[in-house]
Amino acid sequence: LAGTMRADIERLESGEATLGRLEQETAAARAAYEAAADHLSALRAEAGARLDAAVAGELAPLRLEKARFRTALARETDGPGAEHGRDRVRFEVSTNPGRPFGPLSDVASGGEFARFVLALKVVLGAREGPRTFIFDEVDQGVGGAVADAVGERLARLAQGPGQLFVVTHSPQVAARGTHHLRVEKTGPAANDEQGAAETALTTRVVALDAAARLDEIARMLSGAEITEEARAAAARLLGSGRPPPPRRKRTGTG
Fold first, then answer.
1. Which CATH class name applies to 129-254?
2. pTM: predicted TM-score of the whole model, two decimal places
3. Among 54, 58, 144, 175, whose Cα sits 20 to 30 Å from the Cα of 206?
4. Domain(s) of CATH 3.40.50.300: residues in the chain
């Protein structure tokens, strides 16, 4: 009995020592984590300021000259923390002077959101690694020089390691692509054998050669009737002397 009690006492004394050691190690690990999290927060603040300035330089040509963009960092002090630090990072925008900042996904309209994302992707460039991007009517509501600026940035983005698919109704944007796909919808179809009208639409995608592409750009410029003036303008868009982007971007028009 005495031996058993002595062994129990030794285990208790050893357990207290082990607990004290573990508490010290936990405190040291916590201090190291907080120091690393503080350093990471400082680096994020510096990188966010550089990103904000770079994005601001892209906004005016994209018809967002009155908009402001910022990277917002919110410190989370509750809880044990996470492997990526204690910061909650959010992109915020104000689309007009006097308007408060809010989350990009909530404040910007569809066309504005797409152009903000385009500005971000152009600034970040190849640092994101190979990806496939799909821009659906990023030129919505713009034309002329703004549409050309959108197309130029898309072409610049296509020089990275990924590829782009762009759905557009803008001839300025379509002319920037290295491949051109036309999206066609047909229907309702003719009556079937029972005489019932078929109401389903049929969609198909057609890859255009050089001649067909010239006609398509001209159609986008002039409408259903393609004029010689439209063809000449299309030829200027397609052969304006700008260096073509790498063969990574596909353009679809409808």
1. alpha beta
2. 0.71
3. 144
4. 129-254
